Amino acid sequence: MKTYAYAATFEPTEREGGFTVTFADVPEAITEGEDMADARAMAEDALGVALLTYLEMGRTLPVPTATEGVMVAPAPEVAMKIALIETFRAAGISRSELARRIGKDEKEARRLLDPDTSTKLPLMAAALAAMGQRLVIGLEAAE
């Protein structure tokens, strides 16, 4: 099962209670928060934006190698979009072929693959299934 979690380092800032967050494997994802909860939320957002930017630029996503720190993943809807775009690229098919497989027009497939366009879960799951993948949702303890 593939996840998009990366180890984050939370360092206290000069202001009381604040934290700066960095990712060794995704150096473009740098953020800060006023407290640990805010820093964690900002880290999820920064990581998602960085990973989507990698894909928009045609780059492959970095392999998570860092093991020290707090594991952070993008918000679920962002992780699903990342998974969809990565799966589409690996499938080596055209947008028209994806559209045909899910019974939609090419314009809908284009929106489906647009990182800036939100897509409903059933359509993303159908598109992943049409490319031989299955969306799996899991739970973990909140920190």
From TrEMBL:
<feature type="domain" description="HicB-like antitoxin of toxin-antitoxin system">
    <location>
        <begin position="6"/>
        <end position="75"/>
    </location>
</feature>
<dbReference type="Pfam" id="PF15919">
    <property type="entry name" value="HicB_lk_antitox"/>
</dbReference>
<dbReference type="InterPro" id="IPR035069">
    <property type="entry name" value="TTHA1013/TTHA0281-like"/>
</dbReference>
<protein>
    <submittedName>
        <fullName>Transcriptional regulator</fullName>
    </submittedName>
</protein>
<dbReference type="InterPro" id="IPR031807">
    <property type="entry name" value="HicB-like"/>
</dbReference>
